[in-house]
Design a protein that fits this description.
By secondary structure, the chain is of the alpha/beta class. The chain folds into two domains: 3-86, Four Helix Bundle (Hemerythrin (Met), subunit A) (Up-down Bundle), CATH 1.20.120.140; 93-285, Rossmann fold (3-Layer(aba) Sandwich), CATH 3.40.50. Helices cover 54% and strands 13% of the residues. The protein has helices at 3-19, 26-42, 47-60, 67-86, 93-99, 115-128, 143-156, 169-182, 200-213, 228-240, 259-267, 288-296; strands at residues 103-108, 133-138, 160-161, 187-192, 217-223, 245-249, 271-275, 283-285. The mean pLDDT is 94. The structure holds guanosine-5'-diphosphate and magnesium ion. Magnesium ion binds next to helix 6. Guanosine-5'-diphosphate binds at residues 109, 111-117, 194, 249-250, 252-253, 275-278, 282. InterPro entries: AAA+_ATPase, P-loop_NTPase, Signal_recog_particl_SRP54_hlx, SR_rcpt_FtsY, SRP/SRP_N, SRP54_GTPase_dom, SRP54_N_sf. Belongs to the GTP-binding SRP family.
Length: 300
C-alpha cells in the first residue's frame, strides 16, 4: 500500500544524505528538495500539497544542518505537514443516524469506483451497530447492476427496493424511502449509476433522485487509484449535487498513495471510511494517524 509515495520519501532522504558531507550545501538541499517535489507529484500528491510540504522542508533543512539530523527533520516535517492535511472535519455517522429515522444516504461516484461494494460494506458496519438497513437499487442503467446489489442484499439479509432495468431511478429512491418509513428502517442506502462524470443525463438524473429522496447525507465514493482524476470526479459531483462526505475505496490496491492526501487537501470534507478489499467486511473507519503510519512505515 502507498508504495510509490513511501519510496519518494525514503529515496529523498537517501539522496540528500548521500549528497552531503558532514553538513549540506544550500545548492544540494535545494536540488534534492526540488526532486522530492517532483516525485510527490508522480505519486499522485496534488500540486498544492507538494508545494506546501517542500516549502516547509526548505524552511527546516538549513545548510548547516548536520547530515545525521536530516532524516529526523525530513520525517518530522513531512509527517507534520501530512497530518495537517489529513486532519479533516468529522461526522459521527451513528450519532447522526439516531437523529433522523429513516436516515437516507445517497451514494454517487464514477463508474466502477466501488459504490455498490461500499454500500454492502457500510450495511455490514451498520448492522453490526444494530441498525436496520434497506437498499434502493437506483442504478437502473445496467441490468447487471440490479442483480449485483440484489445479491448483496441477499448475502446481508436485508430488504431491497428495486424496479425494472431502465426504469426511473428517482422512483426507486422514492419507493425505498417510503418502504423505510412504513417498516421502521433506520438507514436507507441508495445506490446510483456512474457513467462518465460529466454526463449531463446522469447529472440530471442524480439531481432528481436527490430532490425526491432528500438524503441526509450524500457520499461520493472515490477509487484511491484514480489520483488526480478522483479529485476532478468529486469536484463535478460537488458542483452539481453537493457532497457531504467521501469514502475512498481500493486502498488495498493503491500502490501509488497520494490520492488520499490530495482528496483530503482539495476538499477538506470528512472521509468517513476507507475500503480495503472486495468483501463486505473490508471497510475501516478513517483514521488520520493510521494513514500517516502507512505512508511513513518503511517498505519491507
Ligand atoms: N481491491 C478492492 N476492490 C474493490 C474495493 N471496492 C470495490 N472493489 C472492486 O471494484 C469493482 C467495482 O466495484 P463496484 O462496487 O461494482 O463499483 P460501482 O460501479 O461504483 O458500483 C468490483 O470488482 C469490486 O469488487 C476495494 O476496497 N478494494
Ligand atoms: Mg454499482
Amino acid at each position: 500500500m502507498f508504495n510509490l509515495l513511501k519510496k519518494s520519501f525514503s529515496e529523498a532522504v537517501l539522496k540528500i544524505t548521500a549528497a552531503c558531507e558532514s553538513t549540506c550545501s544550500e545548492k544540494e538541499i535545494e536540488q534534492k528538495i526540488n526532486e522530492f517535489e517532483v516525485s510527490l507529484l508522480q505519486a499522485n500528491v496534488s500540486e498544492g500539497v507538494a508545494v506546501k510540504i517542500c516549502e516547509k522542508l526548505r524552511a527546516q533543512v538549513k545548510p548547516l544542518t548536520k547530515k545525521s539530523e536530516i532524516e529526523k527533520i525530513f520525517r518530522k516535517t513531512f509527517g507534520d505537514a501530512l497530518i495537517k492535511v489529513l486532519d479533516l472535519p468529522k461526522i459521527d455517522l451513528l450519532k447522526e443516524i439516531e437523529k433522523q429515522k429513516p436516515f437516507i444516504i445517497l451514494f454517487v461516484g464514477a463508474n466502477g469506483v466501488g459504490k455498490t461494494t461500499t454500500i454492502a460494506k457500510l450495511v455490514n458496519y451498520l448492522k453490526m451497530h444494530g441498525k436496520k438497513c434497506a437498499l434502493g437499487a437506483a442504478d437502473t442503467f445496467r441490468a447487471a447492476a440490479i442483480e449485483q446489489i440484489s445479491m448483496w442484499a441477499k448475502e446481508l439479509d436485508i430488504p431491497i427496493i428495486k424496479h425494472k432495468y431502465k426504469s426511473d431511478p428517482a422512483a426507486v429512491a422514492f419507493d425505498a424511502v417510503n418502504y423505510a418509513k412504513a417498516n421502521k428502517i433506520d438507514v436507507v442506502l441508495i445506490d446510483t449509476a456512474g457513467r462518465s462524470n460529466t454526463n449531463t443525463n446522469l447529472t440530471n438524473e442524480l439531481k432528481k433522485i436527490k430532490r425526491i429522496a432528500k438524503p441526509n447525507l450524500t457520499i461520493a465514493v472515490v477509487d484511491a487509484l484514480t489520483g488526480n482524476d478522483g479529485v476532478n470526479q468529486v469536484a463535478v459531483f460537488e458542483e452539481n449535487l453537493g457532497v457531504d462526505a467521501i469514502i475512498i475505496s481500493k486502498l488495498d490496491a493503491d500502490e501509488i498513495g497520494g490520492g488520499i492526501v490530495s482528496l483530503a487537501y482539495e476538499f477538506k470534507k470528512p472521509i468517513l471510511f476507507v475500503g480495503t478489499g472486495q468483501t463486505h467486511t473490508d471497510l475501516e473507519e478513517y483514521d488520520k494517524e493510521n494513514i500517516l503510519n502507512r505512508i511513513l512505515t518503511k517498505e519491507k
